[in-house]
Amino acid sequence: MKNDKIRIGIIGTGNIAQSAHIPAYLKQNDAEIVAVCDLKLDRAREVALKYDIKHAVDSIEELVAIDDIDAVSVCTWNNAHAQAAIAAANAGKHVLCEKPMAMNVAEAEAMKEAAEKNNIIFMMGFTNRFRAESQVIKVMAESDKFGDIYFAKTGWLRRRGTPLGWFTDLSKSGGGPVIDIGVHAIDLTWYFMGKPRPISVTACTYDKIGNYQTKGVSRWEALDTDSLVFDTEDSASGFIRFENGASMSFEVSWAINGRDTGVFSHIFGTKAGASLNPFTIYGEVEGYLMDSSPVVEPQDPFVNEIRHFLDCIKTGKEPLASASDGVIIQKILNGIYDSAKLGKEVIID
Known about the structure:
Elements: E1 6-11, H1 15-26, E2 31-37, H2 41-51, E3 55-57, H3 60-64, E4 71-74, H4 81-90, E5 94-98, H5 105-117, E6 122-125, H6 132-142, E7 149-157, H7 170-173, H8 177-192, E8 198-206, E9 235-242, E10 247-253, E11 262-269, E12 273-276, E13 280-285, E14 288-292, H9 301-315, H10 323-342, E15 346-347
Parallel strand pairs: 1-2, 1-4, 2-3, 4-5, 5-6, 7-10
Antiparallel strand pairs: 7-11, 8-9, 8-15, 9-10, 11-12, 12-13, 13-14
């Protein structure tokens, strides 16, 4: 680290990099973005010029070979996460990887192995863990305020919210809303539950509405919107069983004829329960049912996530969202698709 600043390389300069990662790093006094990489060199150069970044390159190999980089954010298409993260780890760079971890479990395990082999910090971009409300619930769960959390419901339903661009191209994304937004809901709720080991999943995926042309709606837009491929699901639902006897149901959609929910999570314990969207604690006080809504100051979860990543690099502590967590969530995601394809419950190893 030069001048006590952690020097950052950004791999992929699409929407998530420009709207979330780069602004979050710029708010940190102890970080400096020194390089950006994108398959489209012109775009990398535009970003570098806009933010006064020293290097702009068009290959992962070239970026990770730059000596004055300590860590990278992987913000590429999903199908390049493994390539980028492994190359960075092998070059001794710490890694913050956007969700999902990879396209499949084999890639995810290879990424974890590379991180361990090279003794670098590897952190998953499970951003919803870094919401202020999420941390309140997690602290309460760890202090046994909910008792035994035995069941949970989670999801994220968009009425008309299919993203534009590569997200609907299976070869680039690895899946539809399950792997795009469902990953946030499932991970967050699993985190609240204490991260029990998943043993099986039953799921259905659907492609019923698809590439609609609804007017008057806004949606997440990739910077590359020339792709007309739509070969992913547009909605899904399912049920996950855990080794400790707990279970979780989930439902996700990019397009469905129902109300928008945002990401939601409901956990049910033997002492109390909690929900996000709305943020509410359900319990009893002096023998009476009591619902409470803790007052929490809004925070930018991306800024909190980046701050935590930098702190882990400085201290060497394990990230809140580790490579091991990423592998387990990847097993659940791929189990969902396997179950839907086979039409039956599948075992998660």
